[in-house]
Amino acid sequence: MAKPKTDLKALSDQDLVQKIAEEELHLKRLKFGHAISPLENPMLIRQTRREIARLKTELRRRELEALKTSSVKPEHK
User: Fold this and answer.
1) What residues contact residue 44 under an 8 Å CB cut-off, 6+ apart?
2) Average pLDDT over residues 45-71
3) Cβ pair 55, 19 in contact under 8 A
4) At how many degrees (to 10) do helices 43-71 and 13-36 cross?
5) Which of 19, 41, 52, 62 has a CA 20 to 30 Å removed from the CA of 7?
6) What is the structure's pLDDT at 75?
7) Strand, coil or helix: what is 61?
8) Averaged over 46-61, what is the pLDDT?
9) For the chain, which domains are there?
10) Is pLDDT at 62 greater than 90 in this prediction?
11) 15 pLDDT exceeds 70?
């Protein structure tokens, strides 16, 4: 059964980093288990990879947004 998607915008940066680490560990375990004996649902590997990509994309979006806001200087009249 597929896991429900989490609201990434509600997570803090630290939570995102922690979730990325958890999902990468989960992916390693899935791949290792699949190498030993076939998984019942091999699509879990793809879903986990895509979830990691979503998390990393959100984290990068936040980094770029923070960079953009910090580089904007107020104009003096």
Assistant:
1) 30
2) 93
3) yes
4) 160
5) 41
6) 66
7) helix
8) 96
9) 13-67 (1.10.287)
10) yes
11) yes
Q: How far apart are CA 8 and CA 23, in angstroms?
A: 14
Sign of the C-alpha dihedral computed for residues 8, 12, 16 and 21 taken in this order? negative
The three-state secondary structure class of 3 is coil
Residue listed under structure tokens 């019942």: 40
CA distance 11 to 15: 6
2-12 average pLDDT score: 74
Per-residue confidence at 11, pLDDT binned at 50, 70, 90? confident
The token duo for 31 is: 């791949």
Residue type at 65? E
C-alpha to C-alpha distance for 69 and 77, rounded to whole angstroms: 20
Q: Which two tokens stand for residue 52?
A: 């990691």
Torsion, Cα of 23, 56, 10, 42 (10° steps): -40
